[in-house]
Amino acid sequence: MSQQNKVRLAGIALIALMLLCWIYPSYGVFRDYLALLNKESVVRLSVLTLWVPMGCLGAVFCLLWMSPKALYYGKGIGKVYSPNAMKLANKICISFALVGVAFAAGWTYHTLDLLDQYGYVYSRDLTKITPTGIHLMYVRAN
Question: What is the largest CA-CA distance in the chain?
Fold first, then answer.
């Protein structure tokens, strides 16, 4: 197998892994919010995981924007694009990461407001600590 084909396969695997690592937590955050809107008996608030949907979106955009050309030439992204393009991609990723922090903070306050409004109380016994963060569990008081 030629070197270019190895790079192409690695690039495709990287794209698939990156998308999976972004979609899975984002879908989890979405499910948690739907559980709150549907007023289920137990809902979860994952503060650190809330950063992922917006914080990693810049990296996903840059990867999807830059990788087709790199896959076509069978080289790494850094070898295909100029240093200025790489700086722009880094700035985009950092900007989205900062927006992700603001999004997580704002969404946390919004969710806490809805939890109070819908009559949920914090459950220390159900709260879980996992590698993706602390998952605060709330139960309906009524």
Answer: 65
User: Distance (Å, rounded) from C-alpha 9 to C-alpha 67?
Assistant: 12
pLDDT tens-digit readout, 11-24: 899 999 999 999 99
49 three-state secondary structure: coil
Q: In whole angstroms, what is the distance from residue 7 CA to residue 95 CA?
A: 28
Segment 89-118 shows an average pLDDT of 95
Q: How many CA atoms lie within 13 A of 37 on its CB side?
A: 7
Report yes or no: 113 and 71 within 8 Å, Cβ to Cβ: no
Instruction: Tokens for 55, please give them.
Output: 């914080």
pLDDT band at 121 (very low <50, low <70, confident <90, very high): very high
User: Do 73 and 80 form a contact (C-beta atoms < 8 A)?
Assistant: yes
Residue 24, helix vs strand vs coil: helix
SS3 22: helix
